[in-house]
Design goal:
Blueprint (H helix, E strand, L loop, with lengths): L1 H12 L2 H5 L1 E8 L2 H9 L4 E9 L15 E9 L5 H9 L9 E2 L2 E2 L5 E5 L2 H18 L6 E4 L3 E2 L8 H4 L1 H11 L1 H9 L12
Parallel strand pairs: 6-7
Antiparallel strand pairs: 1-3, 1-6, 2-3, 2-8, 4-5
């Protein structure tokens, strides 16, 4: 009897539904401190890791990430939040019309992109980008591409907003991130961006 119960428990725990609940999304939205904070407050998101993507350099660091964008890898439970919902939040936490960076951070490393981990995400991101352009009535500069991701190996930038809350809040305010998102998106701006600034 114990073996039957154990087998049933293992089957339940390892069922495709249980395994498929954890998914990954990768977004570049300017400073990874800000994107990390914005998404860690989303119900269903279980982890957000700062890192780099889009370039060919292996194991980039903050001082050496030429050709890469600052990005976050989001782990989420798709029974609580969908990829489409995360995309909607992403668009409303950035200025996707700016092709030269984000807010006070300029250059390719701070430009926006959605990095899909599979064909379904790629197709979903394209549809979502079109909807964002229609919502704003403006062209969207955000690139959509297949994913690659390198975690911030130095560890300094991970959870920066938690480890250095005063410096983080000052940076975010001085950079004008919340102000620009709210000016661009109005009532559609993701309200989580002001969660503790």
């Amino acid at each position: 009897m114990k073996q039957i119960l154990l087998a049933a428990l293992c089957t339940t725990l390892l069922s495709p539904a249980a395994i498929s609940a954890e998914q990954t999304a990768i977004f570049a939205g300017g400073c990874f401190w800000c994107i990390e904070k914005d998404f860690e407050h989303v119900n269903g998101v279980t982890d957000v890791v700062s890192g780099y993507t889009g370039g060919s350099l292996k194991n980039p660091t903050y001082r050496n990430h030429s050709g890469h964008r600052e990005a976050v890898k989001i782990t989420y439970d798709d029974t609580k939040v969908s990829y489409d919902q995360l995309l909607d939040i992403f668009w409303r936490t950035v200025d996707p019309t700016d092709d030269g960076g984000q807010f006070c951070d300029r250059g390719y490393a701070y430009s926006t992109a959605v990095y899909a981990v599979d064909g379904d995400q790629l197709a979903g991101a394209q549809v979502s980008k079109k909807a964002a352009a229609e919502a704003l009535g403006q062209p969207i500069a955000t690139e959509i591409a297949m994913a690659s991701f390198w975690t911030d190996s130095e560890g300094y930038h991970q959870d920066y907003y938690k480890k250095n809350p005063i410096r983080y809040k000052y940076y975010r305010y001085r950079c004008g991130r919340n102000q620009r998102v709210e000016a661009l998106w109005g009532d559609q701006a993701y309200k989580g961006v002001n969660h503790g600034s």
